[in-house]
Specification:
- α2 (74-89) crosses α5.
- By secondary structure, the protein is an alpha+beta fold.
- The strands form two sheets. Strands 2-1-5-4-3-8-9 form a seven-stranded mixed sheet, with helices on both faces. It has a two-stranded antiparallel ribbon with strand order 6-7.
- The chain has helices at residues 3-25, 74-89, 110-116, 133-142, 183-196; strands spanning 43-46, 51-53, 61-67, 96-102, 126-130, 147-150, 157-160, 164-167, 173-177.
- The protein is built from five helices and nine strands; from the N terminus they run αβββαβαβαββββα.
């Protein structure tokens, strides 16, 4: 997928996230007791083969990114940059986890994802998740993430949204981290949210 297309998808996603987030906070989409517009219940499988749900996001700040292990550019770039974000955050990095959710359940088995997230150049606190096609689709829908298989055969690609969501230690949506951000910019946004505390609503 070209950077121009990725940029357009990212801009649209940011606009959607902002509008839906504001709508929830202002009561347009319901009270604060209802499920947030971004994020929600899911059932996936971690790299040990254990079933996990949305509670995996609780207790730490989570940078949630949807991608696939055969991704040639966006996914490794995002994870390389999140590793740099960890470095820039210094001592605060212990409170941040990067959560990689596969949108390619056909190829991204538990074993495949487990091997992928062991890359030393990726974040130290990296959680890899996969699941059945139905499970992955539900998670992607909860986060308003677009993805689509492109091509046939073993070497097909998956077009997908390139942004990352920052979720609070309470598992609530805080802000979108667009693909275009530098590690320095992303770290500054995450640090700002951390300073605001677990009830942060923006960064």
């Amino acid at each position: 997928m070209s950077r121009r297309v990725l940029a357009l998808v990212a801009v649209l996603a940011v606009a959607l996230a902002i509008l839906t987030g504001l709508a929830v906070r202002r009561g347009v989409l319901g009270s604060g007791e209802q499920t947030a517009a971004v994020g929600g219940p899911f059932q996936l499988v971690d790299t040990s083969g254990a079933s996990v749900d949305q509670d995996v996001l609780k207790g730490k700040w989570s940078a949630v990114f949807f991608g696939f292990t055969h991704c040639p550019d966006v996914c490794p770039t995002t994870l390389f940059e999140m590793a740099e974000v960890e470095r820039l955050l210094g001592g605060q990095a212990k409170d941040l986890q990067t959560v990689f959710i596969s949108v390619d359940p056909q190829r991204d088995t538990v074993e495949q994802v487990a091997a992928y997230v062991k890359n030393d150049a990726f974040p130290k606190q990296l959680v890899g998740l996969t699941g059945t096609p139905a499970q992955v689709d539900r998670a992607a829908r909860a986060y308003h993430v677009y993805y689509s298989k492109q091509g046939e055969g073993e070497d097909y690609l998956v077009n997908h949204a390139s942004y990352t969501y920052l979720m609070s230690p309470k598992g609530r949506f805080v802000c979108v981290l667009p693909y275009e951000l530098t590690p320095e910019q992303a770290a500054a946004k995450i640090a700002a949210a951390m300073k605001a505390g677990p009830n942060a609503e923006s960064c």
